Amino acid sequence: MARRALGPLKKYTVKVVLGPMLKLFEVVTELLIPVLTKKIIDQFIPSSDMKNTLIFGAIILGLGFLAFIVTMCAQYLAARVSADYGYDLKKEIFHKMSTLSEKQLNDYGKQKALTLVNNDAFSLQNGVMMFMRLIFRPPFLIVGALVMSFTIHLYAGLIFGGVVLASGIVVGLVMALSPKRYAAIQSNLDEINLLASDSLKGARPVRAFNKQEDEEAEFGASVETYKKKSMVMSSINALINPLTFCAINLGMILIVYLGNISVGGESLLTTGEIVSLISYSTSSLAALIMFSRLSVSLNKASASMKRVDAFLAMEPSITNNPTGEASDNGTYVKFNNVSFAYGEGNGKNTLNNINISIEKGQWIGFIGGTGSGKSTVISLLERLYEPKEGEILYRGINLNNYDLNLLRDEISLISQKPSIFKGTIRSNVTLGKPEASDGEIEWALKQSLAYEYVSKYPEYIDHEVEEGGANLSGGQKQRLLIARAILKGGSLLILDDSTSALDFLSDLNVRNNISKIDGLTKIIVSQRAGSLKDCDQIYVFDKGEIVACGKHDELVDTCSIYKEIYDMQRAK
Amino acid sequence: METFKRLRPYLKGSLGLFAISLLFALLATGSKLAIPLLAGRAVNKIIDPTTSPLRFVDFIVLMSIFLVVGTVFRYVFDYVISLIGQRVIKNIRNAVFHKYTSAPISYVDSSRKGDMISRLINDVENVQTGLVSGFAAFYDGIIAIGFTLVFMFTLNWVLALIVVFLTPISIFVSRFVSKFNSKNFKQQAKDSGLLASFALEGLNNSESVNTLNIAARREEEFDKLNDSFRKSVFKANLGASLINPSTRLVNALINGILIAVGALLVIKDGSLNYGVALFMVGDLSAFLTYASSYMTPFNEISNVVTEISYATSSLKRIDDVIRSSDDINEGTEVIDGEVDNLKANHITFSYDGVRTIIKDFDLDIYKGHKIAFVGPTGCGKTTLINLLMRFYDPQSGCFEANSISTFDLEKRAFREHIGMVLQETWIFTGTVFENIAYSKKGATLEEVKLAAEKAQASSFIERLPNGYDTMISDSSGLSVGEKQLICVARVMLMEPEIVILDEATSNIDVRTEALLSKSFDALMKGKTSLVVAHRLSTIVSSDLIVVLKDGEIIETGNHNELMAKGGFYNKLYNSQFN
Fold this sequence. Notes:
heterodimer, A: alpha/beta, Rossmann fold, six-stranded mixed β-sheet, four-stranded antiparallel β-sheet, 62% helix, 11% strand, B: alpha/beta, ABC transporter transmembrane region fold, 63% helix
């Protein structure tokens, strides 16, 4: 599979290659320093050559500076590329989100989709940075040091190799053991999060049912599990430091010991060699630990890459491919034998054989119980979903061939779910028409009776609205949504049970206001028969089918379900 | 000190361990740092056997002992510190959660949930990393610096002095880098939060984004946030990547100077008289090892200082929660038997002390009556329920049960008389069974099923994939109406003495509601009930209808009386047929 997640990185190929090359230079200088030190100790000091000692000291200093400058260039490249890459990737993910259909997003899981933006993209970007900064350094440093130690002496090389191998095994084992445990701890933390958020949301029921102790006991148990799991992981992780310390220092002791062995009056190692071997092993240990950190980030990044790849590989199921020629001569909206199911496969249909016909300018009512399929019909009409069987004709052409942008501009929907964005009254009302003037906004607010409360705010329409409209009541939110839809305009207005939080009088007034707006075709979805009395046509839904349609007076006589609803609502 | 006082209660039982850990650190770090000195002396011994009275083998044995001691105690130290850290996490989490369940409702209402959770999760972890692990790393670092200095001075005071004079450079560099970084990381965290909440909002409202056709505009806005995030990420990463190279630079600087000066001292050894009897190559080698690891603790300490300051502010946020006042429960009296009468005694209430929500509300509620509250949105119906349950307390007046002010009643004992279903449904993550059984300890499956049947919920529950064992949550795809039915089932199971229904059936279709009302009638038979509803069909049968407007009672009476009166209720009732 193509690595879509890494796609945006192509633009930066040169920089991605250049960065590690610069790091290579740094490694070379770092390996040179012990060589120079050895020379000072073995040659210049015994011969009391002060001049060369100073020159070599100065070279060591100069190399340090040079390495610093070159490294900083590499670090700059890494920071630059990773930030740009992260930006591109997030842009692509967000774009994908807005092209996927509602069904695809729901199937994928919205929480998971959010994780892509705020977590996966970040760990990928971090992975790219760590890769550029560190990928070559540890292996080059370790291999380089190993080679150097073999050139010094075979035994020294073997000791050094053994030490690196032992430390590598320790680090590798801990690394291999960690991810699974880490995931387990993470899922435990999710559980703690969930328990807390459930009981905070249910602050009232918890108190009303006197369940405080039970909640605390459950939470306490989860916290205890977290502690235990974390301790197991800590006790493993705590091995890295002491064991690598042990390996490296054991190596050092062996090297010193080796230095004391003389064959035929000649020492196996010179003092300078011992000193530089010790210095190689110290820097290898640092490299090894760095490598373990790097592999943590790379592990994370590769898990993220899989998720991002899968997400980016999804093809939008609903695409815009306008082909047909619309005409306003015939029926405005027509459903021909439409069936639909949310799930795949053999699941029960949510809608069966739906036939609807709406003429321009009509006032249409949908009525029926919860789950009877009214809102699903609206979603199909908005092309949030597509029918499983049958076809929908909109202005004479199949809805799938109608320009999607045009369709959504023409329909104003007030959905059941109050979707309010963080911002102001103004920013929320003008979502469908950003260029609206203050006068237009005021007009729309008055039509939906939102003006009643908005006019009381000192900041008026610039009053701040919290995320999800947390500072508004249910009725206030609904009125705001109605104002938004009215302001948006278009030719078809749909109210999907969107006055349920209004009292009957306000409901009536809003409907009266809407009826005065010219040229609108209207669909009202309601559970209140009274709200639909004046409709040109009422469709009665039951269990995913339309069981009757007609005007109010006809339905009262002919449709038992309708009559039942109507009678119950005028209860004596 | 302030910080320690705040942390102390959570360290209970771990203080002794904390003190001993200091000893472990001394042993671990001391042993670790003694090895290079011994190695250096051993090298001297190789060059010139007269340098030490000890045998070469003794050096090897000593080094091996220190190796074992250092390894073991390093592990013990690391282990003990994480143990203390995990204990602290657990203690704080339990304490904060306890606070959350015992805090007054007004505290929960006025706090952002995300923030409360982040105190429980992130702040607690900050305290662990900063104040436990961080503090440990801090004194471990100090110990390392101390030992290194001691050994360096033992080896050669001239070179040691050079290192000491160069120290300020190290400190300056690492302080500078970490200060620069913490600012950048804060900015990055902030930008990242903005970006995530923007994306979340879009996802939660994806239907509206589509139907309003504003996807392109949302992408532009996202792009702006994304771009500023890119800038802060770049700065933060560049800053962070300064740390290692600049440490190495300072090390190289110190190293270069030391080699030059050290070599000079070795060469001129004997001819210089500065109080060091012998300075040989082995000593220089040991010295270089110390010098190269000398910077590490400084870096660690400066990292830790930032972490400690984060942790201190996190601990303060936790402490704010712990110090917030508990829900007052001054009442001591308990109602013996049943509540025979309820009375609202001239209640006046305001949430913010500015806008009065309930004005001089006075009402007698008789046992077994069904009382309905009617009125436009915002008239104070739900507030009355809040006051009766004592989620909030009125500024003047009170509810009375059996002529005892609810202020004098033990809060929790009083609540046991009441069962309620609120407008806002509450479904916690768990099975359907657990959700319904919540209201009655030890309820059996049969009881739960019966309650669900009464609540008209059994038919949809049985259609769920695992019936009563199906896992559900607030966002698991149940419709609002279905969630309301589950909440109703809870009360059906509880069979409380007093029933409160606050818009409990607003999203349930009329036919189901009609069936449900029969079960309600059975449940409420002979019981006192308080009902808030927009749907007038549900309240026409009430014994008393209280019409509220702007927090005041404007009409009372039963349905027929109010209809005959031709007032506000009459108008409201007739509006549903026009």
